């Protein structure tokens, strides 16, 4: 019986259609418009804490095991073969970057900031330290957001897929992004069981 290798994944930044990007961008803008800053922070925390709780329930070997999941809305093709720890590291990378740009957007003082999808990928060696890193990041991120005022004011920064976003919209993106990758972790765990 011969086994065929799965097809190669798309390069980072590819694998999400134009229409899906438009729909996701509209959802981010709607969430930022209809939910207040505190509610978005609550959603951000809840989704990150759910991902952390899931990861804590795994052995280190399970957490390091890469699993290719089916693509679902919001996840690009090149991200479909990660381990749980790689997924957590990705959340740390992305949320650290968003935490750094929110005060800049709020104050209108962006300094040479550019977002590139290919620069937020985790390393295959990501390990259980990512759990503690994400726990610390959630606290730091929440503290930064709490100290800012109206996130709807200030400058905008373009996202490679969703166009120019305000601080409120980047904050909504962070919460939605946590939810997307929490779902990815659930799918990885289903495949591991």
TrEMBL record:
It holds the Pfam family DinB_2. Signal peptide: none annotated. InterPro entries: DinB-like (IPR024775), DinB/YfiT-like (IPR034660). Gene3D superfamilies: dinb family like domain. Residues 44-185 form the DinB-like domain. This is DinB-like domain-containing protein.
């Amino acid at each position: 019986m011969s086994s065929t290798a799965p097809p190669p994944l798309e390069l980072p930044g590819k694998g999400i259609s134009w229409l899906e990007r438009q729909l996701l961008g509209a959802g981010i803008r709607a969430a930022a418009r209809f939910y207040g800053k505190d509610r978005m922070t609550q959603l951000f925390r809840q989704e990150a804490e759910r991902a952390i709780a899931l990861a804590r329930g795994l052995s280190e070997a399970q957490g390091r095991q890469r699993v290719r999941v089916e693509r679902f809305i919001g996840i690009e093709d090149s991200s479909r073969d990660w381990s749980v720890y790689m997924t957590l590291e990705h959340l740390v990378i992305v949320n650290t970057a968003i935490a750094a740009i929110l005060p800049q957007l709020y104050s209108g003082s962006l300094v040479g900031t550019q977002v590139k999808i290919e620069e937020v990928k985790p390393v295959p060696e990501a390990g259980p330290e990512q759990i503690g890193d994400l726990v610390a990041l959630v606290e730091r991120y929440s503290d930064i957001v709490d100290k800012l005022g109206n996130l709807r004011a200030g400058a905008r920064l373009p996202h490679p897929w969703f166009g120019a976003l305000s601080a409120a919209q980047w904050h909504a993106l962070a919460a939605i992004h946590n939810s997307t990758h929490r779902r990815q972790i659930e799918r990885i765990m289903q495949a591991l069981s």
